[in-house]
Amino acid sequence: MLRQAAELEGRTFTDFVTTALQDAARRAISAAHVLELSIVDQQIFATTLIDPPGAAPALERSLSADIAANVLVVDAKDEQSAAFYRHHGFIALNDYHLALFLPLATARAFLRKGH
Questions:
Q1: pLDDT of residue 50
Q2: Do residue 48 and residue 63 come from a single domain?
Q3: Domain check: are 57 and 99 in the same one?
Q4: What is the side-by-side order of every strand in the sheet holding 91-92?
Q5: CA within 20 to 30 Å of 28's CA: 18, 20, 41, 115, which one?
């Protein structure tokens, strides 16, 4: 079955299997280390970046939470929302331009500067 799939994609068996394993590893790591937020939580986080005096304690609690996370991932609802996140330092996750991430180290540094 794997050889047939590799042939259908015009790839070598080794390349096909290696790519499939790398994709599976990325998914497993992402599932374990990526914190996904609802649209409401995304808006709360963005508001925290813009207006930290009222919202900064919530962000600080999330940054100090006992979780194994390195980035905050958002799935913007549209291009306007994605532009908003990019303006605040989020980076496109892949070719799907509505998926963006912000390293938590960046958020921590932002808070240390007194924003």
A1: 77
A2: yes
A3: yes
A4: 34-36, 71-75, 99-103, 91-92
A5: 41
The kind and range of the H/E element at 20 are helix 13-33
Indicate whether 26 and 46 sit together in one domain.
no
- Residue 114's region, left for phi above 0, alpha for psi from -120 to 50, else beta, is left
42 with 91, same domain: the answer is yes
Q: How many domains does the chain have?
A: 2
Q: Is 75 helix (H, G, I), strand (E, B) or coil?
A: strand
Furthest C-alpha separation in the chain: 58
Q: By residue range, what is the domain housing residue 64? A: 37-112
Q: What is the block-wise mean pLDDT of the chain (115 residues), using blocks of 10 residues?
A: 89 89 83 80 82 58 68 85 87 84 80 65
105 token code pair: 């180290």
Tell whether 28 and 61 lie within a shared domain: no
CA distance 101 to 72: 5
pTM comes to 0.42
Q: How many Å apart are CA 60 and CA 26, to the nearest integer?
A: 28
What is the H or E stretch that residue 13 is in?
Answer: helix 13-33
